[in-house]
Design brief:
The chain is an alpha/beta fold. The protein is built from 13 helices and eleven strands. The strands form two sheets. Strands 3, 4, 5, 6, 7, 8, 9, 10 and 11 form a nine-stranded mixed beta sheet that branches. A two-stranded antiparallel ribbon has the order 1-2. β7, α9 and β8 form a beta-alpha-beta unit. α1 packs across α2.
Length: 306
C-alpha cells in the first residue's frame, strides 16, 4: 500500500466539493490531475472511495470512513507547519466562507480583500447566497448565518447583534406626507422578500414588525429591496448597517418600529485548530466587533444615546 499525503489532499478536495473541476480549482490544479490522484489512491487502498455519475462524485461508505482519518492527518500537517514556520507563513490552502447577502455584500466584501492580501497562500472562496449553505455537506468551511446550527459537531458563536428599522426615502415622504403613528403605515406600499422564498424565519420581518401586511414589491435580494426603497416605491425594513450609508433614507418611528437579529459564525469542530480556518474566523470576529455601532443602530434609539 503506497500513497502519500498529496493523494489524501486531493481526496479531501473531491469529498468536500463533489466535483473534479471544483476540487481542481481549490487545489489550483486541473481536473485530469485530480482524477489521476483519486484513481491512484483507490488502487493503492484497493477500495472504491467514490461513486461516479454525471452529477459528480459521491462518497462510498468506505470513502466516508476515510474522510475522518484524512482530516485528522490534515490537521496534523497544518499543525506541524504552523509550529515550524509560524502561523503567518504557514496559513495556506483553501477556506470557503459563506454568508447571507446583507452581511457579505454590505459589510464583509469591502474588508475581505485586506485579509486576502495579508495571507497570499490562502485562497478564500467567498460565497453569498440567498439560501443556507450546508456545513454538514461540506458546502462551506466557515459559515455566517442568522441562527446557530442545531445539533451536529459544530462550534458556533454569536459575532454580532444588529437592528432593523422601517425606512423610506426623503422624496417619498415629501410626496406622501410624514408618518406619525404605526397605524399610518398601513396606507403605504411595502417592499420585502418573496414570501415563498424566505429560507429562514429570521428574514420573515413583516409578520413580526407589521403583522397582517404584505409587500407589494417583493425580491429575494436585499440589494434590490434597497434600490426600490431609494427609488421611492414605498417602505422597507432594512438593517441599519445597510441603510445608514444612504442619507436619503429616513427611519420611520425608530423607537416603536424596529427588531433585532443576530449573526452567528459556525464551523466544524474538527476544523477549529486548522490555521486556515482559525485566522479567517479571527478576522471575521474582529471586524464584526469593530463595526458594532453600525450593526446596533443605537444612534436611532433615544434611550441608547449618550
Amino acid at each position: 500500500m503506497r500513497f502519500d499525503w498529496d493523494d489524501l489532499r486531493h481526496f479531501l478536495a473531491v469529498a468536500r466539493t463533489g466535483q473534479l473541476s471544483a476540487a481542481a480549482r481549490r487545489l489550483r490544479s486541473n481536473h485530469v490531475t485530480v482524477s489521476r490522484r483519486i484513481d491512484r489512491l483507490e488502487q493503492a487502498l484497493a477500495m472504491r472511495l467514490f461513486e461516479r455519475s454525471p452529477r459528480g462524485y459521491t462518497l462510498t461508505i468506505l470513502g466516508e470512513r476515510l474522510v475522518g482519518h484524512a482530516e485528522a492527518m490534515e490537521r496534523e500537517v497544518e499543525g506541524f507547519g504552523e509550529t515550524i514556520l509560524g502561523s503567518g507563513e504557514w496559513t495556506r490552502g483553501v477556506a470557503r466562507l459563506s454568508t447571507p447577502e446583507g452581511f457579505g455584500n454590505f459589510f464583509l466584501a469591502e474588508r475581505l480583500p485586506r485579509f486576502a492580501r495579508s495571507h497570499p497562500g490562502l485562497l478564500v472562496e467567498f460565497v453569498t447566497l440567498q439560501q443556507i449553505v450546508s456545513l454538514s455537506r461540506r458546502e462551506a468551511d466557515l459559515s455566517v448565518t442568522l441562527s446557530a446550527p442545531t445539533g451536529g459537531p459544530y462550534s458556533s458563536e454569536r459575532i454580532a447583534r444588529y437592528r432593523l428599522f422601517l425606512y423610506a426615502s426623503r422624496g417619498y415622504l415629501a410626496a406622501q406626507g410624514a408618518i406619525g403613528t404605526a397605524a399610518e403605515t398601513k396606507g403605504h406600499p411595502l417592499i420585502g422578500y418573496v414570501e415563498d422564498m424566505i429560507f429562514t424565519p429570521g428574514l420573515d420581518y413583516l409578520q413580526e414588525i407589521l403583522p397582517g401586511m404584505r409587500a407589494g414589491y417583493q425580491s429575494s435580494s436585499i440589494q434590490a429591496q434597497l434600490q426600490a426603497t431609494l427609488s421611492g416605491f414605498g417602505l422597507c425594513i432594512l438593517p441599519h448597517f445597510i441603510a445608514h450609508r444612504h442619507p436619503d433614507l429616513v427611519a420611520i418611528l425608530p423607537e416603536a418600529i424596529h427588531l433585532e437579529r443576530d449573526y452567528w459564525m459556525s464551523f466544524h469542530e474538527d476544523l477549529a485548530s486548522a490555521p486556515r480556518i482559525r485566522v479567517l474566523a479571527d478576522f471575521v470576529r474582529r471586524e464584526a466587533e469593530g463595526f458594532a455601532a453600525a450593526f446596533s443602530g443605537d444612534s436611532l434609539l433615544v434611550g441608547q444615546r449618550a
